[in-house]
């Protein structure tokens, strides 16, 4: 396959085995949001909340792996989630689902770039706008020009830096300073972090798992990796990736504790970067900076690549046949436009990542049962199933002022389930009646 071919841009040159498939998934799912939300989760819900955050991504990948084999069995010609949905849904249902995919994908990109803005501003003494401009230019080159080939090659380097940082930094610090002083400091200044009978944390764990599974289930970049991993290895790859991912938030919480055990803190988002003041080694400081930069660039580039492919292959190409040159031109235009829009928005708007996670959690929760129904169905799926998620999204947002954002996510999850259940009962009764009449 020629490197200038658009197919190479979408899928890369070779199918991935378990080892490199795991590396690719870890590079996609260890994000800037992971770095920012882990300290916030620790401070709000203690160590129990960190365990819940770990389960959020871990079980999301593992559960999706159970469906991945069914996804691959549908067709060998599919390369994206849009291909799969186009084969299963009617026109109205397809465009509704693609709209949801674009909204959630752009939200995911926004979170990555917002995380990049916060992290770069804290690490490097440059204005947010200029730091973001350089960051987005790097993402444009990697995803818009390099494609899956470059993403696959860089995944190994990114994962090496990630695990190098989360393993070497705590081990080095605890060897030099000892574990006991850190524990005593946490016990003295922040004893609530060690309180495990926290019922709010338990509620958070189950809600986070629901959101995490919904995120993975409709993530365009993850679906691309389903199709580039060897068919017989796909389930094992996702299971192993989920188990490994669970260690990352736990490791990040140990870095936060290195900062917390000495007393108070100014801001949740600065906790990870106050670590720099605690480290005495220039090597460790450089390693931590590389960890932050590689993490956010890898995740953002993967998402940007997936959005571009979805837009060109599953939206524009349905209206007109595109030549190879036109596919590349549309890809450059789409990725460039998204980068510019994100640069403007993120430079002037920085909400709380955790609040946004629960806000969009209604969409992720509402889409779970309809997507599972679509994946497991043998034939075409009616519009009622696709639009069932709309009832969940609307219902969840309507009850937020009454019951709160976290509880509303379960409303968003339950309503589409009821719609799908009633539809299934109707189909069974209708078929039985028709057989009886015949």
Model description:
- It is a single chain.
- With 438 residues, this protein is mainly alpha-helical.
- The protein folds into 2 domains: 12-350, Sodium/glucose cotransporter, CATH 1.20.1730.10; 369-438, no CATH class.
- The protein is 82% helix and 0% strand.
- It has helices at residues 6-11, 18-29, 32-74, 81-88, 91-123, 128-177, 179-189, 199-217, 220-228, 234-245, 247-260, 271-278, 282-314, 324-348, 353-376, 383-386, 388-403, 405-437.
- Helix 8 (199-217) packs across helix 18.
- The termini are far apart.
- It is found in: Cell membrane.
- InterPro entries: Na/Glc_symporter_sf (IPR038377), Na/solute_symporter (IPR001734), Sodium:Solute_Symporter (IPR050277).
Describe the structure concisely for a colleague:
The protein is mostly helical and 438 residues long.
């Amino acid at each position: 396959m020629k490197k200038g071919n658009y197919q190479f841009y979408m899928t890369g040159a070779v199918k991935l085995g378990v080892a490199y498939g795991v590396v690719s998934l870890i590079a996609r799912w260890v994000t800037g949001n992971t770095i920012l939300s882990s300290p916030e989760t620790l401070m709000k819900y203690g160590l129990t909340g960190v365990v819940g955050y770990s389960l959020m991504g871990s079980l999301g990948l593992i559960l999706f792996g159970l469906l991945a084999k069914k996804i691959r069995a549908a067709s060998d010609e599919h390369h994206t989630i849009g291909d799969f949905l186009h084969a299963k849904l009617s026109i109205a249902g397809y465009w509704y689902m693609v709209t949801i995919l674009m909204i959630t994908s752009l939200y995911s990109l926004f979170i990555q770039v917002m995380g990049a803005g916060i992290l770069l501003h804290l690490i490097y003494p440059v204005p947010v706008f200029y730091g973001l401009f350089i960051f987005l230019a790097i993402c444009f080159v990697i995803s818009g020009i390099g494609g899956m080939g470059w993403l696959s090659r860089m995944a190994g380097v990114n994962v090496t830096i990630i695990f190098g940082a989360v393993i070497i930094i705590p081990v080095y610090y605890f060897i030099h300073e000892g574990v006991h002083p850190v524990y005593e400091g946490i016990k003295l200044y922040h004893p609530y972090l060690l309180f495990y009978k926290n019922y709010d944390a338990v509620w958070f764990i189950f809600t986070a798992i629901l959101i995490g599974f919904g995120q993975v289930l409709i993530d365009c970049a993850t679906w691309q990796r389903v199709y580039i991993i060897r068919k017989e290895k796909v389930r094992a790859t996702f299971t192993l990736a989920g188990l490994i991912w669970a260690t990352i938030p736990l490791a990040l919480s140990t870095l936060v504790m290195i900062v917390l055990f000495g007393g108070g803190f100014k801001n949740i988002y600065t906790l990870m970067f106050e670590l720099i003041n605690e480290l005495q080694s220039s090597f460790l400081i450089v390693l931590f900076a590389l960890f932050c930069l590689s993490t956010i660039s890898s995740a953002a580039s993967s998402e940007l690549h997936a959005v571009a492919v979805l837009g060109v292959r599953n939206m524009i190409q349905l209206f007109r046949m595109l030549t190879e040159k036109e596919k590349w031109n549309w890809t450059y235009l789409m990725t460039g436009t998204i980068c510019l829009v994100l640069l403007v928005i993120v430079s002037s708007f920085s909400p709380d990542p955790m609040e946004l996670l629960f806000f969009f959690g209604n969409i992720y929760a509402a889409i779970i049962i309809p997507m599972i129904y679509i994946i497991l169905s043998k034939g075409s799926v009616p519009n009622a199933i696709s639009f069932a998620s709309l009832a969940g999204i609307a219902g969840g947002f309507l009850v937020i002022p009454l019951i709160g954002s976290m509880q509303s996510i379960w409303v968003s999850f339950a309503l589409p389930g009821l719609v799908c259940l009633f539809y299934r009962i109707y189909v069974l009764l209708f078929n039985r009646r028709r057989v009886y009449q015949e």
